[in-house]
Amino acid sequence: MEKVDEAGAARRRLEEIALLADRPLRFMEVCGTHTIAIFRTGIKSLLTSKIELISGPGCPVCITPQKEIDRAIAYSRMENTILATFGDLLRVPGSDSSLYEEKAEGGDIRVVVSPLDAVKFAQDNLEKRVIFFAVGFETTSPAIAFAVREAGRLELNNFFIYSSQRLVPPAIRALLSGKKTKIDGFILPGHVSVIIGSHPYEFIAREFGIPGVITGFDPLDILEGIEMLARQVKERRAGIEIQYRRVVRPEGNALALKVMEEMFLPARASWRGLGEIPESGLFLRAELSGRDAARVFPLELPDPGEPPGCRCGEVLQGVIRPPECALFSRVCTPDQPVGPCMVSSEGTCAAYYKYGRGK
């Protein structure tokens, strides 16, 4: 196999981007994995100064509202209960605690790699209820749906989910409708788009006249995606294009979409920083309400306030960069996070902190 000259290919793409960008352009990546890849590879420092990359609400842990974190903590305190969830959620601060602190105090809180791990916990602990705190975008939703189906097949009456799943296209619509930040194009998420395809994004170009490119995660993928966006702007056209053609199809993954539809329905949901967005959350269908922790175990919790001084919500909207928050790197660090943007491995604040403190 012929060896690819990646450095030469990158140089050529950077030169072409510089030629295409004849005015200042702001492109938003809507995926935490893109955010980390862009920082880790130093792409920002290589681009022409006319291209500004800003991060959007691409981290599912970061956009999970404080009230839902508080509810998960309350569930973990119930007797005979195992609270299962993904590892990034443990250190997200709630109003008065975190799942990490509750675990240190003896709470039975377990980290899963796959939602099926939570089903196994229920199978091995029939005397306890298992509540899976299901956080994620469309990437993880098929696996969560399959876990619900598997628990039904195994007749595990002790398995429940607390759904905090979110859908990406409605959040993009909310960002554009809010008009709080200028966006000239979107670097659209690769993993999410493997599931949903390109069709759900078409409103971005059709209604708002803004181009989008579904992009992979290698440095050359990202540079090609930026080049495709810059070319659309230069040619005064707007469409949704697929750079990540080796894995993304316009129609998405039919099997994954089918299992999601079998288990979940979209409904209004809250996003940290963005507020309530119609049809942006995934919740169990009514016929599966017996597995819905929010319905089976209703809790009355006080409305939480955001941590004083934390501007995570504005970071998620691309309104400010993390260094513009007074708490960043001074009070809020990965060891002592104030907000979720500093906690998650895909959080924008964590990326700025790890890769040069935003310089």
Low-confidence parts, pLDDT < 50 over ≥5 residues? none
CATH class of the largest domain: Alpha Beta
CATH architecture title of the largest domain: 3-Layer(aba) Sandwich
The CATH superfamily of the largest domain is identified as: HypD, alpha/beta domain 2
Question: Quick check: average pLDDT?
Answer: 94
What Rg, in angstroms, do the CA atoms define?
Answer: 21 Å
SS elements, strand count: 11
State the CATH topology of the largest domain.
Rossmann fold
Helix content: 25-40%
State the separation between the terminal residues, measured CA to CA: 39 Å
Count the domains: 3
Structural class by secondary-structure content: alpha/beta
Number of separate helices: 16
Mind summarizing the main beta sheet?
6 strands, mixed
Question: How would you write the strand order of the largest sheet?
Answer: 4-3-5-6-11-10
SSE run: HEHHEHHEHEHEHEHEHHEHEHEEHHH
Q: How would you sum up the global shape?
A: globular
Describe the structure.
The protein has three domains: 20-57 and 169-242, 3-Layer(aba) Sandwich (Rossmann fold); 61-168 and 252-296, HypD, alpha/beta domain 2 (Rossmann fold), CATH 3.40.50; 312-354, no CATH class. It is built from 16 helices and eleven strands. It has helices at residues 6-20, 32-40, 43-46, 60-63, 66-76, 99-104, 115-124, 141-153, 168-178, 190-196, 202-208, 219-234, 254-263, 293-296, 312-316, 348-354, and strands spanning 25-29, 51-55, 81-86, 109-112, 129-136, 159-166, 185-188, 212-214, 240-242, 264-271, 275-284. The strands form two sheets. Strands 4-3-5-6-11-10 form a six-stranded mixed beta sheet, with helices on both faces. The protein starts with 5 loop residues before the first helix and ends in a 5-residue tail after the last helix.
